[in-house]
């Protein structure tokens, strides 16, 4: 699945365990391309920072969708799609 939108915030230089291995990641909040009122949280895995500024378009390949049952928050674990 591909998610596209506008980058609203990012926090670089984070670390997590994903599928049993340690990965660098960037935590982001993105406004959906179709409905900008709809926002989603994501972790962009295997990146220490991304070359995309706040307010710029971004495209991500979703690897895993995680729903936190207590809060109802949905988070996407993704890879950045590098466009030429």
Q: Can you write the helix and strand succession as a string?
A: EEEEE
Averaged pLDDT: 91
Tell me the β content: over 45%
Helix run count: 0
Biggest sheet features: 5 strands, mixed, barrel
Strand order of the largest sheet: 1-2-3-5-4
Distance between the termini: 20 Å
Summing up helix and strand content along with how strands pair, one would put the structural category as mainly beta
Based on Cα principal axes, name the global outline.
Answer: globular
Count the E strands. Answer: 5
Helix content: under 10%
Could you name the ranges where pLDDT drops below 50 across 5 or more consecutive residues? none
Q: Using only CA atoms, what is the Rg?
A: 12 Å
Structure, described:
The structure is a single chain. The mean pLDDT is 91. The two termini are 20 Å apart. Helices cover 0% and strands 64% of the residues. By secondary structure, it is an all-beta fold. It has a 5-stranded mixed β-barrel. The protein is globular and about 35 Å long. The relative contact order is 0.29. A hairpin with a 6-residue loop joins β2 and β3. This is DUF35 domain-containing protein.
């Amino acid at each position: 699945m591909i998610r596209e939108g506008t980058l609203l915030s990012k926090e670089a230089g984070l670390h997590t365990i994903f599928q049993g291995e340690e990965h660098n990641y960037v935590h982001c909040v993105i406004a959906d391309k179709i409905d900008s009122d709809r926002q989603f949280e994501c972790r962009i895995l295997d990146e220490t920072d991304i070359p995309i500024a706040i307010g710029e378009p971004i495209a991500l390949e979703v690897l895993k969708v995680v729903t936190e049952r207590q809060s109802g928050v949905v988070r996407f674990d993704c890879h950045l799609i590098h466009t030429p």
